[in-house]
């Protein structure tokens, strides 16, 4: 082991630095892997208004949504609209949980629960008396597809004002349910009152048919399709998050675009 | 005589090794999301060459029916991906390392010579600094791609609130295609990167962990010798 002193020093330096950096690298790598295993095998959240997601991931979803909501949500940001001619003739049908089969308008009334406990019973004819708003926009499904479609109905904000629900609209959330209560969504009030949110009764100028939420459905372009409830039966207002079908299946509660 | 030559600063190594697992998780969770609407393929003259993705591939990786889970992972790890990228970018700008990284006016011509050299068609590689011309182009591209992934990602994530980003990407539909195509780009980059790292050898690989390379230097330089081959 007789080598030049200078050479040994360089070799020692190399060894020392290699040892140090590879130890740190290995330790960080192992803890990163440990952290990943912790997250991947973390328990599911306690089932409540939201369910089905890993506990830490649900916390992250909620926090991230609050961040983007505060940072970016602006009701003057309108969803892009398209010329009427670009709307699809055949509208994609994905699901009819809570809205199977037909619901002739004569057999249906919209129920709106006021703060006083009074329940408004509103017919489709009455809704169609209100100012009509049309929209052609790109409907976006959480699955990843999108389709330009044409809808007409009454703006939710107009509906609120007409039925003097201003006090109710000061609540933080709106809940909507199908008549059979099989499907339900919770909406934050700013999104519900967005000027492009409609209670829609027409699609391509025809009254809604069975597949698309006959006789009245929600069109809320600032949300994914999962929030666009078909066949509205009941509307409620609250300051806590109303129950939401897909939020119980691991999806983000807010689901805003 | 052996000499220690400093190569990769600590922050550059840190961001590189943070990015590797984070990007892996982003690609994996992205596939969980993509599965729910897996409509992309490469079709030439009516023949589908590649379908993204075949069933056996999905089953092998346990991808089906995990959309909600995929979104939850994707929207958590996007933070690490983005913040790590911003950190790296700021460091590269402030430290002046960008001079080593960005292609210069010779790079595009030289990159071709590097490729010829790597394929053993040409004997001599053009002289280089920390990175050769092909590396400058590749690593700068990967930076541009990372930025593109964040922009196209935000364009799909909040197409109403970030309507200007969605517009920039050519609309919602196209933004999703860009976002997907960039991911395929990472995979191709990864394959070439790994091959180059293996070919370049231990000294080069070690420098991305310990920061230095060991080079042999003539005690009395008779004439200028070009640097040892450096790749990846």
Automatic annotation (TrEMBL), chain A:
Q: What is the protein name given in its UniProt record?
A: Oxidoreductase molybdopterin binding domain-containing protein
What residue ranges carry the coiled-coil annotation? none
* Superkingdom as given in the UniProt entry: Bacteria
Q: Which organism is it from?
A: Pedobacter hartonius
Q: Which stretches make up the Oxidoreductase molybdopterin-binding domain?
A: 104-246
| Region forming the signal peptide | none
What PANTHER family does this protein map onto?
BLL0505 PROTEIN, PROTEIN-METHIONINE-SULFOXIDE REDUCTASE
Automatic annotation (TrEMBL), chain B:
Would you tell me the Gene Ontology cellular component terms?
A: plasma membrane
GO molecular-function term, one example from the UniProt record: electron transfer activity
Instruction: State if Transmembrane helix is listed as a keyword.
Output: yes
Name the coiled-coil region(s).
none
Query: Is this entry keyworded Transmembrane?
Result: yes
List where in the cell it is found: Cell membrane
Q: Topology in the membrane?
A: Multi-pass membrane protein
According to the entry, every stretch annotated as the Cytochrome b561 bacterial/Ni-hydrogenase domain falls at: 8-209
Question: Which biological process terms from the Gene Ontology are attached to this UniProt entry?
Answer: respiratory electron transport chain
- Where is the major localization of this protein? membrane
Which InterPro entries does the UniProt entry name for this protein? Answer: Cyt_b561_bac/Ni-Hgenase, Di-haem_cyt_TM, Hydrogenase_cytochrome
Q: Which residues cross the membrane?
A: 20-37, 71-91, 137-157, 177-202
The alphabetized UniProt keywords are: Cell membrane, Membrane, Transmembrane, Transmembrane helix
Stored Pfam families: Ni_hydr_CYTB
Q: What is this protein called?
A: Thiosulfate reductase cytochrome b subunit
Which species does the entry assign this protein to?
Answer: Pedobacter hartonius
């Amino acid at each position: 082991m007789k080598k030049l002193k200078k050479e040994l020093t360089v070799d020692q330096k190399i060894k020392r630095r290699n040892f140090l950096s590879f130890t740190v690298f290995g330790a960080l790598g192992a803890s990163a892997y440990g952290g990943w295993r912790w997250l991947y095998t973390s328990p599911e959240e306690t089932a409540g208004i939201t369910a089905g997601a890993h506990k830490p991931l649900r916390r992250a979803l909620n926090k991230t949504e609050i961040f983007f909501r505060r940072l970016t949500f602006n009701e003057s940001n309108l969803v892009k609209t398209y010329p009427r001619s670009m709307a699809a003739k055949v509208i994609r049908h994905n699901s009819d949980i809570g809205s199977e089969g037909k619901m002739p308008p004569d057999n249906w009334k919209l129920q709106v629960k006021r703060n006083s406990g009074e329940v408004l019973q509103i017919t489709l004819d009455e809704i169609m008396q209100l100012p009509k708003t049309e929209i052609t926009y790109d409907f976006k499904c959480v699955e990843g597809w999108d389709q330009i479609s044409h809808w007409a109905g009454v703006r939710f904000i107009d509906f609120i004002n007409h039925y003097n629900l201003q006090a109710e609209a000061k609540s933080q959330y709106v809940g909507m349910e199908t008549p059979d209560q099989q499907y339900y969504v919770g909406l934050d009030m700013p999104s519900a009152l967005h000027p492009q949110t409609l209670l829609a009764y027409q699609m391509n100028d025809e009254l809604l048919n069975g597949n698309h939420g006959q006789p009245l459905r929600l069109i809320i372009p600032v949300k994914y399709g999962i929030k666009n409830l078909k066949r509205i039966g009941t509307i409620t207002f609250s300051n806590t998050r109303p129950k939401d079908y897909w939020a119980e299946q691991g999806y983000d509660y807010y689901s805003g675009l | 005589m052996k000499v220690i030559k400093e190569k990769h600063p600590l922050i550059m190594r840190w961001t590189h090794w943070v990015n590797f697992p984070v990007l892996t998780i982003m690609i994996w969770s992205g596939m969980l999301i993509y599965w729910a609407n897996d409509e992309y393929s490469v079709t030439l003259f009516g023949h589908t060459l590649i379908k993204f993705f075949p069933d056996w591939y999905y089953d092998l990786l346990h991808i089906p029916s995990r959309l909600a889970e995929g979104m939850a992972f994707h929207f958590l790890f996007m933070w690490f991906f983005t913040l790590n990228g911003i950190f790296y970018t700021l460091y590269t700008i402030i430290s002046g390392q960008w001079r080593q990284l960005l292609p210069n006016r010779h790079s595009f011509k030289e990159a071709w010579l590097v490729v010829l050299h790597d394929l053993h068609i040409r004997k001599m590689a053009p002289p280089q600094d920390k990175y050769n011309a092909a590396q400058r182009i590749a690593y700068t591209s990967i930076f541009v791609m990372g930025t593109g992934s964040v922009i196209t990602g935000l364009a799909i994530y909040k197409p109403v609130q970030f309507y200007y980003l969605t517009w920039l990407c050519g609309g919602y539909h196209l933004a999703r295609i860009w976002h997907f195509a960039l991911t395929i780009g990472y995979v191709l980059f990864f394959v070439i990167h790994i091959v180059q790292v293996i070919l370049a050898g231990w000294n080069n690989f070690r420098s991305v962990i310990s920061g230095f390379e060991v080079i042999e230097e003539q005690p009395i330089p008779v004439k200028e010798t070009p640097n040892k081959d450096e790749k990846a």
